[in-house]
Amino acid sequence: MKEIVLISVSGDDRPGVTSAVTGVLSQYGANILDIGQAVIHENLSLGILAEIPQPVDSGPVLQDVLSQVHALGLQARFQPISEESYDHWVAQQGKPRHLVTLLARRITARHIARVTAVTASHGLNIDQITRLSGRIPLDRIDSHSKACVEFSVRGAPGDAAVFRSALLEIASELDVDVAYQEDNIFRRHRRLVVFDMDSTLIEAEVIDELAKEAGVGDEVALITEAAMRGELDFKESFRRRVALLQGLSEDVLQTVAARLRMTEGAEELISTIRKLGYRTAILSGGFQYFGKMIQDRLGIDYVYANELEIVDGRVSGRVTGTIVDGQRKAELLESLAARENINLEQVVAVGDGANDLPMLSIAGLGIAFRAKPIVKANAKQAISQLGLDGILYLMGIRDRDTQI
Fold first, then answer.
1. Residue 95 contacts by C-beta under 8 Å, 6 or more apart in sequence?
2. Staple 264 to which of 2, 57, 98, 387, CB 3.0 to 4.6 Å?
């Protein structure tokens, strides 16, 4: 009969705890079957699953461990584990693993209680909980604060769609974001991030801004909203809106460009992923003029958007070349992935409108950002409460990883 013991050590964190405990176990030839450690507010929780080899008696082993632990001012607890229980635990390692990520300006006990209750009710077991966001000073919580907790869960829900729907309800009710994704090798090896531009990278729909300058703002805005909700074919709505800009002076483009604001977190996100070696692209149903401006500002690698035709210094009311609609965005995404020699699972796509859904659906990580309801309901993931830099959490990048 093999003797297996779970050793749990807790107390004030200090150097040398793991070394002291394993040093004792090594004297008796023990095998380490599992080990894990967490530190919360300088309080240590260390767990070691050890096999005491025959014919060694576990009594003296555990007594020596206890003496070492007490000498460090810590507490220890020992729990015998049966071979049957251990074998059952080993058999669980083949189950699928997923990640549930909770994002908010400030995370409360209610948020975690609701998310974990739904997780448990769908038969998923939480193996690990990790805070991805940095430490939040009590006096600095504001409209731009970020908090993120990631739950590593084992198993698969009976109905993934119902589970996702339940998480979406929590997100809507509590004004938080909750993501659910498979924990696989691609999650940690994304290589390309593509963005919609209008209302994603920038806080405006450029065509609406141009329309205001042309005196047709209300008319164009109505068409834009209908298109973003998926009520109108994008190409037809786009042609109608561009036609209304006929006669607008080319100088107005610079005027509009000067007042455009980057979306919260855009610069931080792009700067971080560029440092980490990611490639980036803009795939936009907007205009190339503004896409190039953002490319120069943020250092984005590729830009694909519509070319607004200018004749004699004025907008002709037409665009040249192929219109970048939803299907074209998906085609461009596939082409860029092939060009970069990567799998589609390694692509992150971000957008807010119905014409972004095709590219969101084929990317390994498709994120509806501050999107219309129809887009949020059909995208794999959604972020509405944080800025664009919240996407880093869904990519498994912690705040401390960005300090480079």
1. 154, 155, 156
2. 387
Provide the whole-model pTM: 0.88
pLDDT band at residue 137 under the 50/70/90 scheme: confident
134 is written with which tokens? Answer: 């940095």
The CATH number linked to 296 is: 3.40.50.1000
Amino acid at 313: G
3-state helix, strand, coil split of the chain in percent (to 5) is 45, 30, 30
pLDDT on residue 225 = 81
Report the C-alpha gap between 286 and 253 in whole angstroms. 13
Q: Which residues are catalytic?
A: 196, 198
Least trusted range by pLDDT, from 8-17, 76-85, 106-115, 129-138:
129-138
Same domain? 178 vs 134: yes
Let me know whether 157 and 178 are in one domain: yes
Are 171 and 302 part of one and the same domain? Answer: no
Q: Is it the case that residue 94 has pLDDT exceeding 80?
A: no
Of the candidates 40, 60, 91, which is a domain's last residue? Answer: 91
Name the H helices within 260-402: 266-275, 288-298, 326-339, 357-362, 373-378, 391-394
Note the pLDDT of residue 339: 97
By CB atoms closer than 10 A (0-12, 13-18, 19+), residue 344 is: middle
Measured between alpha carbons, how far is 152 from 350 in angstroms, rounded to an integer? 24
Q: What pLDDT shows up at residue 140?
A: 67
In this predicted structure, what is the pLDDT of residue 389?
Answer: 96
Q: Does residue 384 share a domain with residue 304?
A: yes
User: What's the maximum distance between 2 C-alpha atoms anywhere in the chain?
Assistant: 94
Query: What is the rounded CA–CA span in Å between residue 301 and residue 332?
Result: 14
- State the Cα–Cα distance between residues 389 and 263, nearest whole angstrom: 10
Distance from C-alpha of 129 to C-alpha of 133, rounded to nearest angstrom: 12
User: Does residue 214 sit in the same domain as residue 356?
Assistant: yes
Q: Are 131 and 275 found together in one domain?
A: no
Q: How far apart are CA 346 and CA 277, in angstroms?
A: 13
Cα Rg of the chain (Å, integer): 27
Q: Are 178 and 301 within one domain?
A: no
**Does 330 score more than 70 pLDDT?**
yes
